């Protein structure tokens, strides 16, 4: 029986979701981290609302980036350790497609909840209510692109010592365009300006990521598994 | 001569730039040669341990 | 067409000999050209109409910037060659390039800051060109960090090669950032043909570009020799070379 591509993706996604929900507390950790980080900014910068509103895009995006980086570690590590990744590579199915499925599931479990929780952090930072949906949309799109790019560095650092720090170090330069356009989109949303252009750039980066990142991640994983 | 050094008042930006640039050039030569001589030493030691 | 020369470049001992023979020529030429260029740029060239004597920083800044990107491109190309044709020497070249490119990036950022202060009033602005050049520095560090972090030398070669290739996307961003976005940084200057600068200013700059390229060639060949010695462990040709 030959499983079709869609069937393979469904199996991978279902497996990852099942495993994730066995330890639901682990799903909350990145969210908690995001909220704590976002709280540190007003504590250390200024409680003044107008200044906070100016800083809000940066605070939101850096918080989202840092908690995404933490979450990226779990993308491949456990499966690499217990040999599942090797089975994927040997299975005769497309490793690229399977890793893409894994990355999507990872985003569903980390990036999307993060995006949905941004209002909780954004409102205390002075972001107007009308802007909240745009903020959620931009963080959702940006975190998806980030998961895709992070999959590449996660694959590259599989065999490295202190892979966690290295993973962050490698992902950050590649994540700069996402940060720049994402923060711009959030800023535009807050001041009521044109969010179209930066959102389109984010979308373009996400599309580029979808087409190229799983390929690169698969190649990187194969190198790490040799 | 002092006119040359002051470079129209921009001397304090210009000369550090040149020192930085040429310094990095010289430093790279020096470090590369150091790396090479260390590699040669290690290779000699390895060959000695073999024979 | 004979592919013999290509095969020679795959042979570590041959490459080592090539590097040893050519380093003094590249190094000597680099020194002479640089002295000549500095004489032309610091003494002969007239002050700029707008920037007065401060423009002379270009003689260090522009070649450093070009080399910082050219070295990265070389590194990525060598890495790709190493991955596709599985050539050890190519991976060694990539490894040798990295520290040099990083230093060029530091020189670019440093001289840029020293030029920015008198011209723009600020040592640093977060504009696209400066930021993407800084990202280039991070990419170099990431490359060297990844190499250092992976124990197995072959895995380290392949993984860092992939990183180098993925990072190439930053190069067009740096180069075109001044035309794509509203940047504080100067737009590209035409040097030849309908030039924006007088010839007396241009020829020392062209010579400095040449000097920096020659310098890169000399230093990368030295580092390549060290890489080859480390990688080849106790191969027989090493015994000959060390005599």
Descriptive notes:
- The complex is a heterotrimer of chains A (about 230), B (about 50) and C (about 240).
- Chain A is mostly helical.
- Chain A has one domain.
- Chain A is built from 9 helices and no strands.
- In chain A, helix 2 packs parallel to helix 6 and helix 6 crosses helix 7.
- Chain A is elongated.
- The relative contact order of chain A is 0.14.
- With about 50 residues, chain B is mostly helical.
- Chain B contains 2 helices and no strands.
- The mean pLDDT of chain B is about 85.
- Chain C has 9 helices and no strands.
- Helices cover about 75% and strands about 0% of the residues of chain C.
- Chain C is globular and about 60 Å long.
- In chain C, helix 3 packs parallel to helix 8 and helix 4 runs antiparallel to helix 5.
- The model of chain C has no long low-confidence stretch (mean pLDDT about 85).
- Chains in contact: A-C, B-C.
Question: Brief overview, please?
Answer:
Chain A is mainly alpha-helical. Helices cover 84% and strands 0% of the residues of chain A. Chain A is built from nine helices and no strands.
Structurally, the number of domains of chain B stands at 1
CA radius of gyration of chain B is: 21 Å
The biggest beta sheet of chain A, please? none
Q: Roughly how much helix do the residues of chain B carry, as a percent range?
A: over 70%
Q: Spans of chain B of 5+ residues with little confidence (pLDDT < 50)? A: none
Structural classification of chain B: mainly alpha
What is the structural class of chain A? Answer: mainly alpha
Give a short account of the largest sheet of chain B. none
On the 0 to 100 scale, the average pLDDT of chain B is 86
- Distance N to C terminus of chain B: 62 Å
The Rg value of chain A, from CA coordinates, equals: 18 Å
* Number of E-state strands of chain B: 0
Gross geometry of chain B: rod-shaped
Q: What does the oligomeric state look like here?
A: heterotrimer
Terminal Cα span of chain A: 28 Å
Hey, which two chains have the biggest interface?
B-C, 33 and 43 residues
């Amino acid at each position: 029986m030959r499983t079709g591509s869609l069937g393979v993706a469904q199996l991978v996604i279902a497996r990852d979701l099942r495993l994730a929900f066995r330890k639901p507390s682990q799903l909350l950790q990145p969210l908690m981290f995001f909220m704590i980080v976002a709280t540190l900014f007003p504590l250390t910068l200024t409680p003044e609302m107008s200044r906070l509103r100016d800083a809000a895009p940066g605070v939101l995006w850096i918080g989202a980036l840092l908690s995404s980086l933490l979450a990226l570690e779990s993308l491949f590590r456990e499966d690499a350790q217990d040999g599942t990744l090797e089975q994927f590579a040997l299975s005769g199915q497309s490793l690229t497609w399977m890793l893409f499925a894994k990355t999507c599931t990872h985003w569903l479990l980390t990036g999307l909840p993060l995006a949905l929780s941004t209002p909780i952090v954004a409102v205390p930072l002075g972001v107007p209510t009308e802007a909240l949906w745009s903020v959620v949309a931009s963080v959702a799109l940006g975190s998806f692109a980030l998961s895709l790019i992070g999959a590449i560095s996660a694959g590259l650092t599989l065999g490295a010592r202190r892979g966690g720090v290295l993973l962050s170090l490698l992902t950050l330069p590649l994540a700069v365009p996402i940060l720049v356009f994402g923060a711009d989109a959030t800023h535009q949303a807050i001041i009521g300006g044109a969010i179209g252009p930066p959102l389109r750039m984010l979308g373009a980066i996400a599309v580029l990521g979808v087409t190229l990142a799983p390929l690169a991640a698969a190649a990187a994983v194969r190198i790490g598994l040799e | 001569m002092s006119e040359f050094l002051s470079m129209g008042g921009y001397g304090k930006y210009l000369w550090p730039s040149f020192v930085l640039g040429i310094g990095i050039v010289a430093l790279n030569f020096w470090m590369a040669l150091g790396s090479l001589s260390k590699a040669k030493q290690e290779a000699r030691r390895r060959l000695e341990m073999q024979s | 067409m004979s592919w013999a020369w290509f095969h020679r470049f795959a042979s570590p001992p041959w490459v080592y000999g090539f590097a040893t023979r050519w380093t003094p020529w590249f190094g000597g030429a680099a020194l002479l050209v640089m002295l000549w260029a500095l004489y032309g740029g610091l003494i002969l060239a007239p002050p700029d109409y707008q920037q007065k004597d401060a423009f002379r920083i270009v003689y260090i800044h522009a070649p450093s910037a070009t080399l910082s990107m050219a070295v990265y491109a070389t590194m990525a190309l060598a890495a790709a060659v190493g991955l596709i044709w599985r050539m050890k020497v190519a991976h060694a070249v990539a490894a040798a390039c990295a520290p040099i490119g990083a230093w060029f990036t530091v020189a670019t950022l440093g001289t840029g800051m020293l030029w920015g202060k008198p011209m723009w009033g600020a040592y640093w602005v977060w504009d696209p060109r400066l930021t993407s050049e800084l990202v280039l520095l991070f990419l170099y560090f990431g490359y060297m960090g990844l190499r250092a972090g992976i124990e197995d030398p072959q895995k380290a070669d392949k993984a860092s090669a992939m990183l180098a290739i993925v990072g190439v996307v930053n190069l067009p961003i740096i180069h075109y950032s001044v035309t794509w976005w509203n940047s504080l940084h100067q737009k590209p200057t035409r040097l030849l043909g309908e030039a924006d600068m007088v010839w007396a200013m241009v020829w020392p700059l062209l010579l400095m570009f040449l000097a920096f390229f020659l310098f890169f060639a000399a230093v990368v060949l030295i580092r390549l020799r060290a890489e080859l010695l480390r990688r080849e462990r106790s191969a027989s040709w090493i015994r000959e070379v060390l005599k």
